[in-house]
Amino acid sequence: MQFSLHKPASPNPFSAALDALEEIVLGKSEKIRLALVCLVGGGHLLIEDIPGVGKTTLAHALARVLGLKFQRIQFTSDLLPADIIGVTVFEREHERFTFRPGPLFAEVVLADEVNRATPRTQSALLEAMQEKQVSVDGETHLLPRPFFVIATQNPLEQIGTYPLPESQLDRFAMRLDLGYPAADAERALYRAEDRSDLLARLAPSLSPHDVNELQARAAEVTAAPALIDYVQALVAWTREARRYEHGLSPRAGLSLVRMARAHALVAGRNAALPEDVQAVLPAVVNHRLRPRDPAITGHDIGHELIEAVPIP
């Protein structure tokens, strides 16, 4: 079965946002695009990397260029669930209890160094990510729409970290690493104006309403039966090849389809193609699959799948 190439959507609403982001985070065009795809696809993003490579800058720039409210939460070993969710307090002058929302009630939340918090606090964050709401003292409070979490994770060999369990890693649609910049991008960074000053002047290209509409449009992007066949073949191969401790779950397959749809929309198309699946595949699967062969790293997994599974 052949794929049909639908006409590009015009004009592309993401062009200005991508251009602005690339002026702030230098030399990381592909990672910027994937972060935007993750948001548009309605997922959450995990970034694992060393301090100082631009994780916070990327999260803040993404929020500003999309016109979204941004909050940064520094995760530490003494952070409690109530510190991020919020608490109910008694207002003596009104003689009533009132919920005071925590920093989680923002449209873009940077959960910085999430693996330095205890498992209890990690679970509270990940539950909110999944349910898009929190319950405090028997009352349910809806989180904003859109709601996008960017969690950063230090390399596990660093002191004072609590590894995220596999069941919680699976809640993230994508995992990225930014890495060191190329030499020319790093030189431009040293010569340029301070990033915080550039961020302060960054004008929104979209609004929260626009982002909600684009997320709805991403869910309607055509995924032809042949594309679903391709995704199903990729998922099945991870279960049958015996190269991983466990194959991909149905949730992972759903994330792959959702992210491929969002990638097509960001590219200006209203139909997802195999190239969209392949573009998002490494970021979708590299934190979900544990190779039996320790020589295989997370960076190799997506490329191995692309080479092993032919397009229908």
Provide structural commentary.
This protein has one domain (15-308): 3-Layer(aba) Sandwich (Rossmann fold). It has 13 helices and nine strands. The protein has helices spanning 15-24, 29-40, 55-65, 81-85, 119-131, 166-169, 183-191, 195-200, 208-219, 225-240, 250-266, 274-285, 298-308; strands spanning 45-48, 70-74, 86-91, 96-101, 108-112, 133-136, 139-142, 148-153, 174-176. The chain starts with 14 loop residues before the first helix and ends with a helix. A five-stranded parallel beta sheet has the order 2-5-8-1-9. Strands 3-4 form a two-stranded antiparallel sheet. 44% of the residues lie in helices and 14% in strands. With 312 residues, it is α/β, with parallel strands linked by helices.
Secondary structure blueprint with pairings:
Elements: H1 15-24, H2 29-40, E1 45-48, H3 55-65, E2 70-74, H4 81-85, E3 86-91, E4 96-101, E5 108-112, H5 119-131, E6 133-136, E7 139-142, E8 148-153, H6 166-169, E9 174-176, H7 183-191, H8 195-200, H9 208-219, H10 225-240, H11 250-266, H12 274-285, H13 298-308
- The structural domain count equals 1
Q: Which quaternary structure do these chains form? A: single chain
CATH topology: Rossmann fold
By helix and strand content, what is the structural category? alpha/beta
Query: How many angstroms does the end-to-end distance come to?
Result: 7 Å
Number of helices: 13
CATH hierarchy: architecture: 3-Layer(aba) Sandwich
Fraction of residues in β-strands: 5-15%
* Topology pattern, helix = H, strand = E: HHEHEHEEEHEEEHEHHHHHHH
User: What is the 3D shape?
Assistant: globular
Count the strands?
Answer: 9
Cα Rg = 20 Å
CATH superfamily: P-loop containing nucleotide triphosphate hydrolases
* Average pLDDT level: 87
Identify the strand order in the major beta sheet. Answer: 2-5-8-1-9
The helicity comes to 40-55%
